[in-house]
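Prompt: Have a read of the protein record below and flag anything odd:
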Amino acid sequence: MEQEPNDVIIMSAINSGATRFGKIVKKTKIEEDQLGKLLDRLIDRGFVQMVEKKGLFGTKKEITLTEKGNKELEERKFELEQNWNQMVTMWKSGDKQKLQQYMNDNHSILPSMMYLGIIDLMMFSTMMSFVGLAMTNFIPENYMQDTGSSDIGHDTGHDSGDSSSMGDFHGDGGTGDMGGFDVNF
């Protein structure tokens, strides 16, 4: 079943613990009015439900995935992973035109792939350079800004609890220092 890419992002956010409207807005960076419409559609399709829970200060409404929603999310994740694998195969084959055409034809799924952590950012950046494009041509800026809360970051090579080793492995941090990464592929 073809879905809006944001549907998958919303269901993934709910699945990972964002069960309140405000938390979903914050986690997905989808505007409130658009999120409301998308949630209504997801409820109508039977993928999510509103559940009232009793708490210390009265009842509160939470949004949860239904069994049907869980199944749909898993299927969509699998499809997105297959799409990513196709892109990697095209990139490795060296066919710039085929890869660029595939990206153009499937640009709407790239934000979902990024949100779900399917895309390897270093490889995707290299792919974009390979076809002569910028990542912002395909990934909205709001998904590029805050990667600190997901698994999309990179390893700095030192234990953050050991301040004595800071800088030992990655240069002095001055202009042009890329944190120990060789960016000249």
Q: What stands out?
A: The beta strands are 48-55, 58-65.
